[in-house]
Structure formats: structure tokens, C-alpha cells
Amino acid sequence: MRHHLHTEIDIDASAETVWNILTDLANYTHWNPFITEASGDVVVGSKLVNRIAPPGGKAMTFKPVVTVVEPAKTFEWLGRLGLPGIFDGRHRFELARTPSGATRLLHTEDFQGILVRPMRKSLDTQTRAGFDDMNVALKARAEAVAGAPT
């Protein structure tokens, strides 16, 4: 079974500003309501330690592996619950310039495995709400940084 979540938000800040906040894992605890703690190196092959707290759901810690790093463009990891094929999630952040000069964040995750079907409702409600909450918080933080006097 496969399932895809897709969220996006436009942020009035440069892709570099958004990227710097998104990849500063140690500071997630200060602004991110969904991934409340994160650590590790934003380098392909590196293992992260992330704690998620989906709205209305149970907080959990997982250790995904970084699979894509393209500065100011793409950051992706692959997380697994147990063995491959049980419950795998490929979490992806893509940054793109909009015609107005803002940065569009595409925040997605592709799930696959035998546990996807029984977890689909919570993915579509709690996990999606967590993505949306994180997007709004990232937008607020990036726009505050971009608007700060230098």
C-alpha cells in the first residue's frame, strides 16, 4: 500500500533563508511545533534523530537516513518502522522561487508498507495537520528573519 501527503506554502523570504532555518536541526525545538526535536548532520547517508508530535497524536522518536541534500533546493530523508516494507516514509522538502519572488515550500511524504492502510486516517488528519503547522511556523520564522534589519 502507498499513500502520499502533499502540502505547500509560499514564504516571503529567499530560498537561502528558508533553507538555513530548515536545515538548522538543533533549533527546531525553538520554532517547530511538529518536529519538536531534531539532531544529526544534513549530509546524504547521515542518520538523524527526530521527535515528532502530531496534533492529537502520540509523540514518537525515529531515526531516518538523509537521502537528498541540494542546498537551497531539496532536503529529504527516509524513515522506517522496523524492517523495510512495514512502514516507510520518504519525507521531502523542496524549495522553488515563485513568479512574485517568494519561496514556495513543497512539504511532502510518500508512505509505503503493510501498515499504511491501517494508519491512513491518522496520516490524513494528524500527520497532515502537523505538516501544516510546521509550514506556518517556518513561514513566520523565515519572514521574521528576512524582515529583520541588518
What is the overall shape? globular
CATH class (first level) name: Alpha Beta
Order of helices and strands: EHHEEEEEEEH
Helix content: 25-40%
Helical run tally: 3
Task: Supply the CATH architecture.
Answer: 2-Layer Sandwich
Instruction: Give the uncertain stretches in residue-range form.
Output: none
CATH superfamily: START domain
Kindly report how far apart the N and C termini lie: 50 Å
CATH topology: Alpha-D-Glucose-1,6-Bisphosphate, Chain A, domain 4
User: What is the residue-mean pLDDT, rounded to a whole number?
Assistant: 95
What features would you describe in this structure?
The protein has 150 residues and is an alpha+beta fold. The chain has helices at residues 15-22, 28-31, 116-147, and strands at 2-11, 35-39, 49-52, 60-62, 65-70, 74-80, 88-97, 103-112. It has a 5-stranded antiparallel sheet, with helices on one face. A hairpin with a 5-residue loop joins β7 and β8.
In terms of topology, how is this protein built?
Layout: E1 2-11, H1 15-22, H2 28-31, E2 35-39, E3 49-52, E4 60-62, E5 65-70, E6 74-80, E7 88-97, E8 103-112, H3 116-147
Antiparallel strand pairs: 1-8, 2-3, 3-4, 5-6, 6-7, 7-8
Q: What is the gist of this entry?
A:
This protein is α+β, with helices and mostly antiparallel strands and 150 residues long. It is built from three helices and eight strands; from the N terminus they run βααβββββββα.
